[in-house]
User: Which sequence fits this backbone?
């Protein structure tokens, strides 16, 4: 069992990186958002007497592992802690991150892991924003 957990540790970070990148690029939508988009399309087409032949395209599903949910939620909670430079965001304010972690009562033994996971998502977000700017 321990061996399986160790093997997944790297995968956890890759999944967090992928989710953060998709979120930064605006590629994550909830089922409710898709339903709203479908209604808007249907209403617009109905206004001119048309009916949609195909539904609004659903993007590939992306799942977050349960052990990453807390770090993901914490990453969103520190969304107001971005340091901004002349060309945009340059990274998170780590003192602010630490304060939020304390408020969330992250256990001492989990602090380093959670902080590293936030850094993984921070780097992925910055890279995605840079991609979007260049591209």
Assistant:
């Amino acid at each position: 069992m321990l061996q399986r957990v160790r093997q997944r540790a790297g995968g956890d970070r890759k999944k967090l990186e992928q989710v953060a990148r998709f979120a930064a690029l605006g590629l994550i939508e909830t089922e409710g958002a898709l339903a709203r988009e479908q209604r808007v399309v249907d209403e617009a087409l109905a206004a001119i007497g048309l009916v949609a032949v195909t539904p609004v395209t659903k993007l590939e599903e992306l799942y977050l592992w349960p052990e990453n949910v807390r770090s993901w939620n914490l990453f969103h909670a520190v969304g107001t802690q971005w340091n901004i430079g002349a060309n945009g965001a340059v990274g998170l304010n780590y003192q602010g991150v630490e304060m939020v972690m304390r408020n969330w009562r992250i256990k001492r033994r989990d602090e380093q892991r959670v902080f590293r996971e936030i850094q993984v998502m921070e780097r992925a977000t910055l890279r995605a924003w840079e991609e979007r700017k260049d591209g």
Summary: The longest strand covers residues 88-92. The CA atoms of residues 73 and 118 lie 10 Å apart. The radius of gyration is 19 Å. The longest helix spans residues 108-134.
